[in-house]
């Protein structure tokens, strides 16, 4: 599910507030039509100020740029991380990594990133977050009732029927690592656009792998290639439940345009493969 695209760049007062001389006339590719840049600074709208402030504080204190880079957040001229519903960070060099071409690099960047943030405490804003992605997370991990069309809810019920307890400890993680790694020659990978969750670290890789199979045409073989991740099959099930639960909330809100039958056809091969792995 995608948030609605913005059709206009940030207003002049937002640009001035972050000390930017101007922004390009075209939104950045991959920013859902919501992210703008002048080539030096990136401006984007903020949906959850508490979440953004938390991420900004972590990234501002980042000292591991020789291992994994993160974009350096920028305060507005009045010292705030969020101004008028917008935020800014420095441009991070690199090309978008893809699971189809760069799965090994994405996995390594994800594992390094999660090792470096493993000591962070659970963010308090997670208790109050109620967007579709947070709902999907609770469907996967906390038994929340799935929403949406009957076919979508049936997929969740089938997946959850194969759930077994997961013992791996939770930690802060990146909820969409597969689509948010930048690669640049001579530089460590950059991890960007961080939606924080608090689940086992391997869950981030499970989301990346199942997304890649369902939406990027990556062969099912990746589910076997990454099976050394602890409790991999159970994490794969929860990754599927998370994404399907998110779509279900989007369907309930009228924010998911793909017909539920078509969506089910896209995710069913991965679901059946994971269920077959469990036996």
Helix count from the secondary structure assignment: 9
Low-confidence stretches: 1-6
Distance between the termini: 30 Å
Q: In the CATH scheme, what's the topology name of the largest domain?
A: Aminoglycoside 3'-phosphotransferase, Chain: A, domain 2
Percent range for β-strand residues: 5-15%
Instruction: Give the helices and strands as they follow along the chain.
Output: HEEHEEEHHHEEEEHHHH
Biggest sheet, spatial arrangement of strands = 1-2-4-3
| Count of discrete structural domains | 2
> What's the assembly state of these chains?
single chain
Protein topology:
Elements: H1 12-17, E1 36-37, E2 41-45, H2 49-60, E3 73-74, E4 86-90, E5 95-96, H3 99-116, H4 132-141, H5 150-160, E6 170-174, E7 181-183, E8 190-191, E9 196-200, H6 202-215, H7 221-225, H8 232-253, H9 260-278
Antiparallel strand pairs: 1-2, 2-4, 3-4, 5-7, 6-9, 7-8
Helix pairs in contact: 3-6, 4-8, 5-8, 5-9, 6-8, 6-9, 8-9
What does this structure look like?
It is a single chain. The chain is an alpha+beta fold. The chain has two domains: 12-92, Phosphorylase Kinase, domain 1, CATH 3.30.200; 96-278, Aminoglycoside 3'-phosphotransferase, Chain: A, domain 2. The chain is built from nine helices and nine strands. Strand 1 and strand 2 (41-45) form a beta hairpin. Helix 3 packs antiparallel against helix 6 (202-215), helix 5 runs antiparallel to helix 8 (232-253) and helix 6 crosses helix 9 (260-278). The longest helix has 22 residues, at 232-253. The chain is globular and about 55 Å long.
């Amino acid at each position: 599910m995608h948030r609605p695209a913005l059709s206009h760049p940030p207003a002049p007062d937002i640009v001035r507030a972050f000390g930017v001389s101007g922004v390009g006339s075209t939104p950045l590719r991959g920013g859902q039509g919501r992210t703008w840049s002048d080539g030096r600074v990136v401006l984007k709208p903020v949906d959850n100020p508490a979440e953004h402030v938390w991420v900004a504080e972590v990234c501002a204190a980042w000292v591991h740029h020789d291992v994994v880079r993160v974009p350096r957040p920028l305060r507005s001229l009045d010292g705030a991380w969020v101004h008028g519903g917008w935020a800014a960070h420095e441009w991070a060099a690199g090309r978008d990594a893809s699971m189809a071409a760069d799965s090994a690099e994405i996995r390594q960047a994800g594992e390094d990133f999660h090792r470096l943030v493993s000591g962070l405490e659970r963010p308090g804003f997670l208790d109050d977050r109620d967007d579709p992605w947070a709902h999907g997370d609770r469907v996967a991990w906390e038994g929340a009732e799935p929403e949406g069309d009957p076919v979508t809810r049936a997929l969740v019920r089938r997946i959850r029927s194969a759930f077994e307890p997961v013992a791996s400890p939770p930690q802060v993680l990146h909820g969409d690592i597969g689509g948010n790694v930048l690669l640049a020659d001579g530089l460590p990978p950059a991890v960007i656009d961080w939606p924080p969750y608090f689940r086992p670290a391997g869950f981030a890789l499970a989301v990346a792998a199942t997304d890649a199979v369902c939406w990027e045409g990556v062969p099912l073989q990746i589910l076997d290639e990454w099976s050394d991740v602890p409790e991999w099959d159970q994490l794969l099930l929860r990754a599927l439940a998370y994404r399907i639960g998110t779509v279900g909330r989007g369907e309930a809100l009228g924010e998911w345009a793909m017909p539920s039958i078509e969506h089910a056809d896209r995710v069913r091969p991965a679901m059946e493969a994971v269920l077959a792995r469990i036996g």
